[in-house]
């Protein structure tokens, strides 16, 4: 049955969402690779899986279907016999160019059943799994001391938010910024290309992973059927936002205003959704660290220009006024992470206190550890569904980062 795709807001009732259950890839983190792989600690696999399952349950209890990236990729490959194409591409994108090594890896992956093959690509392939030493002088002489993996693990895959974004009835398949995550969006491309429920006319691709500018889904918020907010961040460039704007303004959809919000280019705030999320039609979480002392910010608004093919850009500094205007709301409530306290705010922001996922207007899923922010949300009339977070939070992402909505019910 063809799937329905439609995302016209951050808060409309969530009906279908894509997750990735953390797998062996998180056990393939070690202290010497952790930083490059964008983790601050090593999650304990059985507990991170339990916590992730609790997240999936909370989503289902609140009316959403949950589908898994790893299962969709396997189904997509089986439907179109895409195995060889994906294996060749992932080997290429893993920077493996020595023929003997390529052949050994390709034989190894293709000898597995589809699900194991997909899980293994995601978990990474250790060098000692294959008998490379006895067959490749090229590898023996080119390798680096640290080559523990022929294919590096992809521990960030459970942050499905970032690799692609459903916008209206179509999708942006994102070109990722760092080496550690570049290959991840290939899995979404595979689903869009081969999966019977995704491919073809039913899913227009607004922008694909071959673009030469980077954009990540954590930066993209769908504020309403015609307004997007996109962070200009460590991961998303102004040029990428402009490209996406041109594509969206051109095509048959309703987006007509894009707010490009500049945020600090630092790890703790790598995406807009780590400092700003929508919790109700007129309420948002915000980390006070993105505003200056007089609460000013730098925001560019992009709109279609009257001149064919051009874009109109205007500059704004007051987030509240701009949101009132574009969302047609008399008031906007910005709820500060950690209550704005100089210790609680940065502590809870670090553990994704501002990274809420709305399952319907005024109902959000959050991490239980951020009790100051959660209490404040409740005091502001928001219903908060807490999930356990000891291990999930170690990679610096919360409920919004771990979810890629496919369908929200429009009014
Ligand atoms: N949408 C998000 N905020 N995602 C968080 C991603 C965290 C991940 N470790 C990274 O650095 O890429």
From TrEMBL:
Coiled coil: none annotated. One of its GO terms (molecular function) is arginine deiminase activity. It is found in: Cytoplasm. Keywords: Arginine metabolism, Cytoplasm, Hydrolase. One of its GO terms (biological process) is L-arginine deiminase pathway. InterPro entries: Arg_deiminase. Pfam families: ADI. One of its GO terms (cellular component) is cytoplasm. It catalyses: L-arginine + H2O = L-citrulline + NH4(+). Its EC number is 3.5.3.6. It comes from the Bacteria. Pathway: Amino-acid degradation; L-arginine degradation via ADI pathway; carbamoyl phosphate from L-arginine: step 1/2. The active site is at residue 401. Belongs to the arginine deiminase family. This is Arginine deiminase. It comes from Alkalibacterium thalassium.
């Amino acid at each position: 049955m063809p799937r329905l795709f439609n995302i016209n807001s951050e808060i409309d009732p969530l009906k279908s969402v894509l997750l990735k259950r953390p797998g062996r890839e998180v056990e393939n983190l070690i202290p010497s690779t952790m930083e490059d792989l964008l983790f601050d600690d090593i999650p304990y696999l059985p507990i991170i899986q339990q916590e992730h399952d609790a997240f999936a349950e909370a989503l289902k209890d609140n009316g959403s279907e949950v589908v898994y990236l790893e299962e969709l990729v396997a189904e997509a490959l089986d439907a179109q016999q895409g195995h060889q194409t994906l294996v060749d591409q992932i080997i290429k994108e893993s920077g493996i160019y020595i023929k003997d090594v390529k052949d050994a890896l390709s034989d190894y992956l293709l000898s597995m059943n589809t699900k194991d093959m997909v899980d293994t690509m995601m978990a990474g392939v250790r060098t000692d799994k294959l008998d490379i030493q006895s067959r490749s002088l090229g590898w023996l002489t080119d390798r680096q001391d640290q080559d523990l993996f022929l294919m590096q693990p992809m521990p960030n895959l459970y942050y499905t938010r970032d690799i692609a974004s459903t916008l209206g009835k179509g999708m942006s398949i994102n070109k990722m910024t760092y080496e550690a995550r570049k290959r991840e969006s290939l899995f979404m491309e595979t689903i869009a290309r081969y999966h019977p429920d995704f491919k073809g006319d039913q899913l227009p691709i607004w922008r694909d992973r071959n673009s030469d500018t980077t954009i990540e889904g954590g930066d993209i918020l769908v504020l309403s059927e015609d307004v997007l907010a996109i962070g200009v961040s460590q991961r998303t460039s102004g040029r990428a936002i402009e490209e996406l704007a041109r594509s969206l303004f051109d095509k048959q959809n309703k987006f007509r205003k894009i707010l490009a919000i500049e945020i600090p280019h630092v790890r703790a705030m790598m995406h807009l959704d780590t400092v700003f999320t929508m919790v109700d039609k007129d309420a948002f979480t915000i980390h006070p660290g993105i505003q200056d002392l007089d609460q000013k910010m730098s925001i560019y608004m992009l709109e279609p220009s009257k001149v064919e093919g051009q874009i109109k850009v205007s500059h704004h500094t007051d987030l509240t006024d701009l949101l009132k205007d574009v969302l047609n709301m008399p008031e906007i409530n910005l709820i500060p992470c950690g209550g704005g306290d100089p210790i609680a705010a940065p502590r809870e922001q670090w553990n994704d206190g501002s990274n809420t996922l709305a399952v319907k207007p005024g109902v959000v899923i959050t991490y239980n550890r951020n009790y100051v922010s959660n209490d404040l949300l409740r005091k502001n009339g928001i219903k908060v569904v807490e999930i356990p977070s000891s291990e999930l939070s170690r990679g610096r992402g919360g409920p919004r980062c771990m979810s890629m909505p496919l369908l929200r019910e429009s009014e």
